Amino acid sequence: MRHCSVQVRGLLTRDELDRYNALMEVGSFLESQSRHDLAYTVQKEVDLLIMPAIERLKDKGRARDRATEEYLASKRQAAVDASGDDEDEDEDE
User: Fold this and answer.
1) What is the distance between the alpha carbons of residues 1 and 41, in angstroms, rounded to a whole number?
2) Which of 4, 18, 27, 93 is buried deepest, with most CB atoms within 10 A?
3) Using DSSP, how many helices (H) and how many strands (E) does the chain show?
4) What residues make up the domain containing 36?
């Protein structure tokens, strides 16, 4: 059985996490009994179960990217404003 990443597991709801843990336990048991055909079916269920958490992780990444872009834009604007202030001081002299 393949586990999902720690980041994805951290975004599972309590119900999803309980179901995930139960499915992983069942899948591990089936693999220990060499019932890989049934373990495959359980793995597919796990893959479907974690899809909403993967989307939540993607959304967090997109939000972080937007925040970074806004920060960089404000830094660029501050640099432009600062260079404009320097030109005004040069003209006064």
Assistant:
1) 10
2) 27
3) 3, 0
4) 6-92
| 12 contacts: CB under 8 Å, gap ≥ 6 | 20, 50, 53
Burial class (CB in 10 A: 0-12, 13-18, 19+), 54: middle
Overall domain count for the chain: 1
**1 is a domain residue:** no
In this prediction, residue 84 has a pLDDT band, given cuts at 50, 70 and 90, of: confident
Q: What is the DSSP string of 56-69?
A: HHHHHHHHHHHHHH
pTM of the predicted model as reported, rounded to 2 decimal places:
0.74
Q: What does each C-alpha distance from 14 to 10, 64, 67 come to in angstroms?
A: 10, 24, 28
Encode pLDDT of 1-56 as tens digits.
999 999 999 999 999 999 999 999 999 999 999 999 999 999 999 999 999 999 99
